[in-house]
Design brief:
The complex is a heterodimer. Chain A has 20 helices and 14 strands. In chain B, strands 1-3-2 form a three-stranded antiparallel β-sheet, with helices on one face. In chain B, helix 1 crosses helix 2. Classes of the chains: A alpha/beta, B alpha+beta. At the A-B interface, helix 17 of A face strand 1 and helix 2 of B.
């Protein structure tokens, strides 16, 4: 491979690309996000300038922008611009932490939630109002306000206030506003649900798998089964919403989850979810503290992910479900559609401060969700009680996060997966104490590389490709 | 005077001092330790630089971290 690279330089007619071995073939990718698989023998012919112009592969290489003197520059510029259009949008995701209080003590809690009866951890209405004033100053025309906790329903008054105030303020600002609630649903009553449905609030809950697994990961403070309570409320939401609302669910994978790839998929099918997000735990909050007990290696995660996704795709192929997996979809939108899927963690630069902003219960503002989970002020960018939106957005911590998450300045610039991947500077900081430290083969790098390698490999299978295309259509 | 707070966990003092040295021809600076922050005061600069001097100075500090 190294000697091949040297030859590429000598030829000079090849456009810039990155490459890596991928299950016996060579994967080549361009900066604009195009890709092609070549057999090693064909790759060697390419770099030795031995491919004849009448060979089909040569035309494919031209079409995908691998041949320098046949580049369609205007098309490539437009493709690159579209892929990176998020840079001009401004923050679109505004996370409001309405309380840190929670009635669960999940073994991986990244938010370091406080006890249900703890005092001083609720956002008051004055702070909520200042938060909304800041949010509506954001230049983005379309915004999502995500209500988080702790368990956000523990501070219902502020949720009600935020929903009503948002609608009132938007009569002036006329933005496309989407409000979502991320909740364990345990405190959801029929009245509250009616209000949320009337206000068009999306609901996202947590479901970690079958009862035993869910209850092992997510412990309800009264000792009652969290699974029973959550699924009872899932039924209620589906019944009262006439099954029209897209109730979604998130799962977090602990070490205990890794034994149950099929069972987890089946649990999501059972409740009629259209999407599952196989999320590994991060090294933040309780996940970091409990790492030895509940953590796992990237190889263990990869093994689980492969089993789960193969099972899910096979169910799709057999026509038994249309459910998709979110991480795969995010990468597939980038690979197949060459578009930004609006996923802030896999961008260059990442979404910290320029794509998302987090407003904590006490008015403090952070660059992103991970930043507030650090439980320190390193990524603090202001306080809505004292600072204007302009002050917040001009914090020196935002360009620092941007700079540290640009793939161009680190090892990622040499990786064939670069057009589809991203860096999280907060995770890097949490793991190494250094903002500018993107280690090759770090846990996150290994996991993303595995998933991308797996997806590229499966794209060579027509049945998989058909299902993957359906997922992103 | 314009103030810029640099968090010590992200910005080493050496990078800030390097930027002050580079910018000393166009502005005067004060530097103070303030809890977990290094507070830089910028003053006595040409009015024409007012809109850009903070961003330019911060960018220089940031670049200095990567290329000390």
């Amino acid at each position: 491979m190294r000697s091949a690279l040297k030859k590429i330089d000598e030829i000079g007619n090849l456009a810039f690309f990155r490459f890596r071995e991928c299950n016996g073939n060579v994967l080549l990718t361009t900066e604009a996000g195009e890709h092609i698989f070549l057999k090693k023998s064909v790759f060697n012919k390419l770099v030795n300038n031995e491919i004849r112009k009448n060979e089909p592969v040569y035309q494919e290489l031209i079409g995908k922008g691998f041949i320098r003197n046949r580049l369609k520059n205007f098309e490539l510029i437009e493709q690159y611009r579209q892929k990176n259009s998020f840079i001009w949008r401004g923050p679109t995701l505004h996370i409001i932490v309405v309380t840190l209080r929670c009635n669960h003590s999940c073994i991986y809690c990244q938010a370091s939630a406080k006890g249900f009866s703890a005092k001083g951890y609720d956002m008051d209405k004055a702070t909520a109002e200042k938060t909304l004033e800041a949010i509506f100053e954001s230049p983005s025309k379309a915004i999502t306000i995500e209500l988080q906790g702790g368990e956000p329903l523990a501070n219902w008054e502020t949720i009600e206030f935020i929903c009503r105030k948002t609608i009132a303020m938007n009569k002036t600002f006329k933005k496309l506003v989407n409000i979502t609630l991320v909740s364990n649903l345990s405190l959801l009553s029929k009245d509250k649900l009616k209000f949320l449905i009337d206000q068009n609030v999306g609901i996202c809950t947590s479901l970690d798998g079958p009862r035993a697994l869910h209850d092992r990961n997510r412990k309800f403070f009264s000792g009652r089964s969290s699974y029973d309570l959550t699924t009872q409320k899932i039924k209620m939401v589906k019944k009262f919403d006439n099954h029209k609302r897209r109730l979604s669910a998130l799962l977090t994978l602990s070490k205990f989850s890794l034994k149950y790839p099929k069972e987890i998929i089946e649990e999501y099918r059972k409740w009629g979810f259209q999407e599952i997000h196989l999320r590994p735990i991060s090294n933040l909050g309780m996940s970091k503290a409990n790492r030895k007990r509940i953590g796992y290696t990237s190889e263990e995660f990869a093994n689980f992910y492969k089993k789960a996704l193969d099972y899910l795709v096979k169910l799709n192929i057999a026509g038994k479900t249309t459910m998709s997996e979110r991480t795969a979809k995010i990468f597939l939108v980038k690979i197949l559609l060459k578009r930004d899927p609006s996923y802030l963690d896999l961008r260059s630069p990442c979404g910290a401060g320029i794509g998302q902003i987090v407003y904590n219960y006490d008015g403090k503002v952070y660059t992103c969700d991970e930043a507030r989970m650090l439980q320190e002020d390193t990524f603090l960018i202001g306080n809505v009680r004292t600072d204007s939106f302009k002050d917040i957005i001009n914090s020196v911590n935002i360009p620092a996060s941007c700079f540290a998450s640009c793939q161009e300045s680190v090892y990622c610039d040499y990786c064939a997966y670069k057009p589809y991947c991203g860096i999280c500077p907060v995770i890097n900081y949490a793991e190494t104490g250094n903002l500018f430290c993107q280690l090759p083969n770090s846990r996150l790098c290994k996991m993303n590389s595995f998933i991308l390698g797996y997806l590229f490999d499966r794209l060579n299978d027509e049945e998989y490709k058909k299902i993957f295309s359906k997922w992103i259509s | 005077m314009l103030f810029i707070d640099f968090h010590k966990n992200l910005y080493p003092q050496s990078s800030i001092l390097k930027a002050i040295k580079a910018f000393q021809g166009i502005a005067k600076f004060t530097i103070k330790q303030k809890n977990r922050y290094i507070r830089v005061g910028v003053y006595d600069y040409d009015n024409g630089y007012h809109k850009v001097i903070k961003q330019e100075f911060c960018n220089y500090v940031l670049a200095s971290i990567k290329s000390p």
